[in-house]
């Protein structure tokens, strides 16, 4: 990737995470993410999205949990991505908690939520539940 000891800046690293994600190279994207000094919200957004896009839905939720654990609050991009993750995993309670978090924290966007809600409702007809909390 680059010379040993040379660590690219945040913007370059975020671009690399995005590029590796588009190539479905989740391991390479995660290596870049882990090497970064100080992940910003864009870094977290990118790595959560990469996991979701590569079909690692559990990984996307683990990254979200880790992000919240280090004190970074999810934004609209991450919460929308994770709602889709929840629909893929059929984890109703987790999705409800994330949706509630979005509303309580003013992350509600009319152009995003209706389509996500419709997808979410379709996927959760008679589904099983699991527990997750954004409150650490």
Please tell me about this protein's structure.
The chain has 136 residues and is mostly helical. The chain has a single domain, classed as Serine Threonine Protein Phosphatase 5, Tetratricopeptide repeat (Alpha Horseshoe), CATH 1.25.40. 64% of the residues lie in helices and 0% in strands. It has helices at residues 10-22, 26-35, 41-53, 57-69, 76-89, 92-104, 113-123.
Residue share in helices? 55-70%
Per CATH, the superfamily is Tetratricopeptide repeat domain
| H/E element sequence | HHHHHHH
> What's the CATH first level?
Mainly Alpha
Indicate the CATH architecture.
Alpha Horseshoe
Mean pLDDT figure: 75
How would you characterize the largest beta sheet?
A: none
- The total beta strand count reads 0
Low-pLDDT segments:
119-133
CATH topology type:
Serine Threonine Protein Phosphatase 5, Tetratricopeptide repeat
Question: Distance N terminus to C terminus?
Answer: 36 Å
The total domain count is 1
Count of helices? 7
Q: Class by helix and strand content?
A: mainly alpha
User: Percent of residues in beta strands?
Assistant: under 5%
**Shape estimate:** globular
**Using only CA atoms, what is the Rg?**
15 Å
């Amino acid at each position: 990737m680059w010379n040993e000891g040379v660590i690219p800046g945040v913007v370059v690293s975020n671009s690399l995470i995005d590029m590796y994600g588009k190539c479905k190279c989740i391991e390479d994207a995660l290596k870049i993410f882990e090497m970064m000094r100080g992940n910003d919200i864009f870094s977290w957004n990118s790595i959560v999205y990469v996991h979701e896009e590569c079909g690692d839905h559990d990984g996307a939720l683990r990254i979200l949990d880790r992000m919240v654990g280090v004190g970074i609050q999810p934004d609209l991009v991450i919460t929308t991505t994770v709602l889709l993750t929840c629909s893929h995993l059929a984890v109703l309670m987790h999705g409800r908690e994330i949706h509630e978090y979005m509303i309580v924290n003013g992350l509600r966007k009319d152009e995003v939520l209706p389509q996500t809600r419709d997808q979410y409702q379709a996927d959760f007809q008679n589904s099983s539940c699991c527990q997750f909390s954004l409150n650490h």
